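Bug #2210: token dump truncated for Alanine and proline rich membrane protein?
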Amino acid sequence: MSKAALTLGALGTTIGIAGLVVGLTALLRPEPSAPSPTATPTSATSPSPEEYRAAATEACAGFSNFKSGVGIARGAFIDRVDRANDWESPQSLGTQGYYFSAVGAELDYLDSRVSPEAPKELASAIASLRPSLTAVVDADLRREPASVSNKIVDEYSQTLDEVENACKAAGVS
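Reproduced locally. Full output below:
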């Protein structure tokens, strides 16, 4: 093997490991607490209709970007899985690192787009994405058989649909 190939292999492995660490750290962070459905805001702290609409629009735009980013990252991972002969190769580790770190970054990004003024139903639906997506990533990492992973992906898809429905209910499509 040439010196350049060894250097690139070492670099790919290092990037993959760093991505795994960053991604897993973000995934294992406790999920933000969903707003209490029994909590009733007082009129002094209730958002105005404009603030409510703006917060819903911001959260739903963040969700759209989140969904796209996770889809791209998972697509690259699944593509690599289909071609992988060696899960420990620098290419496989690099792709795994990209996937896990991208998912963690997208979850953090989405959290930053949901403000306290957002509709409670929308905020709650978005908060349910973290455990649902974490289950998908866990199934991918453990290379679960299709009989297991397909069920988990279906549950994640239902969670995505719930957020989309909450966006529509908030008047954002």
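Output looks complete on our side. The chain has six helices and no strands. Marking as cannot-reproduce; reopen if the truncation happens again.
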